[in-house]
Design a protein that fits this description.
325 residues; alpha/beta; inorganic pyrophosphatase (n-terminal core); Diaminopimelate Epimerase, Chain A, domain 1; 5-stranded parallel sheet; 11 strands
């Protein structure tokens, strides 16, 4: 297979990582809370690669089940005592506090694979590549770097492809590189339906459609291009939706003409707000970090404890846009 891999200087850590994985009989893979397709795709895609290459190993993917992502894969029920002799791999998770579950702390050793800007350092081996479009792209790149040592199959290819599609918003984001397209094309050579994957991601449940209509009507945009909307628990309850089902409106709002940066605030049960920040140019992850979050330069997340902090975040976004003008 003649493919130029992501970064030849990265091959040393990829080699070290795969050799380290090969030494363990029991491997448990975690990812972040409130998973997206890249989290589940990288977690379960890596699981399938390891299983295909080393059929004798016990490999598990664990975490909270998310109903609208069950079309990708299902989580394993992992007994706590398995961790005592296991290697834990954490994918797509920048910091320890966002790892889904607590039992990973019981493992003998950890490995981190992530594409977010470095936040927490953790793990015996830490592979972070913030230039990658997704964690799924990184894992597929590891396969493409050592195709004679790592076995790909259709299930793994489907999962990794789905994660790339999800984190690039169907190849629309700036994080999509020429190499991203090469990786996707290599994965598409395996017998799975990329059309089915794309169609699943396009499915809108009736209640989510109502939320999208509400969001388009109530979304506020300032004269300098800072947009925001606040979704209350009462609103979501009236629509039969939870926090995890609000993600569909985030890219939608960025399609409105004149929007440069935007924020979606989702009220939580305790009264605070989860905040998703997006940008078409100005770098927003420093603002997210200031409020206890983080993420990519153009796609980040954080929290606001009350209406006052929401106001502070919006003012900071306005100053950012003005400075970037």
């Amino acid at each position: 297979m003649l493919v130029q891999t992501m970064n030849s200087t990265d091959n040393q850590i990829k080699r070290e990582l795969w050799d380290f994985i090969s030494e363990w009989d029991t491997i448990i893979i975690h990812r972040h809370v409130r998973p997206d397709p890249d989290a589940i795709g990288s977690q379960c895609g890596l699981k399938e690669l390891i299983k295909a290459t080393f059929p004798e190993k016990e490999v598990y993917a664990t975490g909270t089940t998310v109903d609208d992502l069950e079309y990708l894969d299902e989580m394993d029920d992992v007994p706590q005592d398995l961790y005592e002799q296991a290697l834990v791999i954490v994918t797509d998770t920048a910091n320890i506090k966002r790892i889904d579950g607590e039992n990973f702390k019981l493992a003998k050793q950890w490995v981190k694979i992530d594409h977010h800007p470095l936040d927490d350092s953790y793990g015996e081996i830490e592979w972070v590549n913030s230039s990658a479009s997704s964690c799924c792209e990184m894992i597929a790149d590891m396969w493409l770097s050592f195709p004679e040592d790592i076995k790909m199959n259709a299930k793994a290819a489907r999962l990794l492809y789905a994660g790339i599609v999800g984190d690039t918003n169907r190849f629309l984001y700036d994080s999509t590189s020429p190499y991203t397209m090469i990786v996707a094309s290599e994965l598409m050579k395996f017998p799975f339906s990329h059309t089915e994957v794309n169609n699943q991601m396009n499915v809108i449940k009736p209640n989510s459609g109502k939320l999208m209509g509400f969001a388009l009507e109530k979304f506020e945009v300032s004269d300098i291009g800072v947009g925001h909307i606040i979704l209350t628990t009462d609103l979501l309850k009236s629509l039969g939706l939870g926090d995890s089902e609000t993600h569909s409106i985030v890219p939608l709002l960025g399609q409105i003409e004149g929007v440069k940066v935007w924020a979606v605030f989702v009220e939580q049960s305790e009264g605070a707000y989860r905040c998703r920040l997006r940008s078409k140019g100005p770098v927003i992850n420093e603002i997210a970090s200031k409020h206890g979050g983080g993420g990519h330069p153009l796609a980040s997340g954080t929290h606001a404890k009350d209406d006052k902090e929401i106001g502070e975040i919006l003012e900071e976004l306005k100053r950012l846009v003005l400075a970037d003008a």
